[in-house]
Amino acid sequence: MKIAVMGGDGFIGWPTSLHLSDAGHEVHILDNLSRRWIDTELGVQSLTPMDSIQERTRIWHAETGRRIHFNLIDLAKDYELLKTWLAEHRPDAIVHFAEQRAAPYSMKSDRHKNYTVNNNVSATHNLLNALVELNLDAHLVHLGTMGVYGYSTVGAAIPEGYLPVGIETADGRSVSQEILYPANPGSIYHMTKCLDQLLFQFYAKNDGLRITDLHQGIVWGTHTEQTRRHQQLINRFDYDGDYGTVLNRFLIQAAIGYPLTVHGTGGQTRAFIHIQDSVRCIELALKNPPQRNARVEIFNQMTETHRVRDLAEMIAKISGAEVVRLPNPRKEAPENDLIVNNDKFLNLGLAPITLEAGLLSEIVDVAKKYAYRVDRSRVPAVSAWTKDIAATVNHDPEGKRLKSVS
Ligand code: USQ
Questions:
Q1: pLDDT digits (tens), the chain, 406 positions
Q2: Would you give the DSSP letter of residue 177?
Q3: Ligand 1 atom closest to residue 193's alpha carbon, by position in its atom list
Q4: Parallel, antiparallel or unpaired: strands 304-307 and 269-274
Q5: Which is nearest to 262 in space by CA: 332, 311, 318, 333?
Q6: Is 382 in a helix, a strand, or coil?
Q7: How far is Cα 81 from Cα 231, in angstroms, rounded to an integer?
Q8: DSSP output for 335-347
Q9: End-to-end CA distance of the chain
Q10: Is residue 193 among the annotated active site residues?
Q11: Shortest CA distance to 210 belongs to which of 302, 303, 91, 99?
Q12: What class has domain 2-238+274-303+337-355?
């Protein structure tokens, strides 16, 4: 297949591009390199040293003989350029990662809220709009989030996108229908993915577009089979308070002797997936497109659920790290259960990589190797969800102003 990977320079976009290229597909990356600019804005860098996208693709070609093409295009701002590229190349499939993906970054200020909404919604809409205009029947696979559902459970598993409901009609009959699971976003970033869902529903219904939405959990790990092949193919690995996600942050914190930063009681339960499984799921979704005029296909792209404090305790046990409980900068339920249905990927043959001490220690070792690149002042999560919460945020978990719990 000829596949366009929108956002192919990012944390999942890059290993996905390599994985698909390795599987024999013709891969074209479209990216505006915004994630690299945001590093500059925030004054942070990936824990792992990353080369330019041109250098990365050159090394991939030298190693494997396969070419990955790179195009500097901003989906949100360069509609005509995007349309021209799609008209010329007419890909069979498009993987869409080209969105601002960090909840804390999206909540930093009014400017960051505007940026995240404008960027994410425009990028998605421009893409859908261009597909219709060009009469291009490419299968669109979008990276969504488990966060569209919210995280509370009513004691039943969260289904894969659609919820069966019974409705009493005016004349007393009972009819049943499947509706999109009620959206319940917890940040501006998550809200944009809820808006994306509505755009997909409309374009699938009105124009018959073939769309798959992947509701992904929190990704952990950094390497995939392909990124391991050469040190210059290495993936990015974020540790800072805005872009570092919880499990990877704990692993890096353990490696640099920083207390593990549990927000609140750590009773938040979230869905997780290893990065290697993430790229496998994307390939499985590409191989199983919906029919034209079918409803949007939705998969829950996660393999297990964990409570934040349990993860911290597990990592403390294998690494000897200290755990601190910090005032939570986010507005979220302090404790929740989470049951998620992920049968669709399992039925397609996904054999999940689950969390175990061996794998975690391996990641701590990667982090130790690059520990000299860490700016400790960038570790605390200081982006607050409301102005009231901002006053309580802890800027110095190392100062031991908070009682350590282990
Ligand atoms: N948390 C801590 N300590 C930390 C960092 C986070 O306790 O140092 C807590 C947060 O308060 C939250 C949970 O860990 O309760 C998860 O936070 P996160 O930053 O790992 O994940 P999140 O903000 O939800 O976003 C990440 C990705 C996003 C993706 C989402 C999947 O950045 O792109 O969509 O995970 S999900 O969470 O399933 O919606």
A1: 999 999 999 999 999 999 999 999 999 999 999 999 999 999 999 999 999 999 999 999 999 999 999 999 999 999 999 999 999 999 999 999 999 999 999 999 999 999 999 999 999 999 999 999 999 999 999 999 999 999 877 789 999 999 999 999 999 999 999 999 999 999 999 999 999 999 999 999 999 999 999 999 999 999 999 999 999 999 999 999 999 999 999 999 999 999 999 999 999 999 999 999 999 999 999 999 999 999 999 999 999 999 999 999 999 999 999 999 999 999 999 999 999 999 999 999 999 999 987 788 889 888 999 999 999 999 999 999 999 999 998 888 887 544 444 4
A2: E
A3: 34
A4: antiparallel
A5: 311
A6: coil
A7: 33
A8: B----B--HHHHH
A9: 52
A10: yes
A11: 91
A12: alpha beta
| Tokens matching residue 350 | 């996904």
Residue in the block written with tokens 């509370």: 152
CB of residue 6 inside a 6 A radius of ligand 1: no
Q: Where are the domains of the chain?
A: 2-238+274-303+337-355
* Residue of the CA atom closest to atom 1 of ligand 1: 246
Q: Which of 199, 220, 184, 239 is nearest to 99 (CA)?
A: 199
Single out the catalytic residue among 193, 239, 243, 258.
Answer: 193
CA atoms of 49 and 37, how far apart (whole Å): 15
Bridge pairing between strands 139-145 and 26-31: unpaired
DSSP string, 240-293: STTT--HHHHHHHHHHHT--EEEETTSB-EEEEEEHHHHHHHHHHHHHSPPPTT
Atom 11, ligand 1: residue with shortest CA distance: 263
How far does the centroid of ligand 1 lie from the alpha carbon of residue 307, in Å? 11
Helix 308-319 to helix 357-369 angle, to the nearest 10 degrees? 70
Buried b (16+ CB within 10 A) or exposed e, 159-185: bbbeeeeeeeeeeeeeeeeeebbebeb
User: From CA 260, how far away is CA 325, in angstroms rounded?
Assistant: 8
Whether 205 is catalytic: no
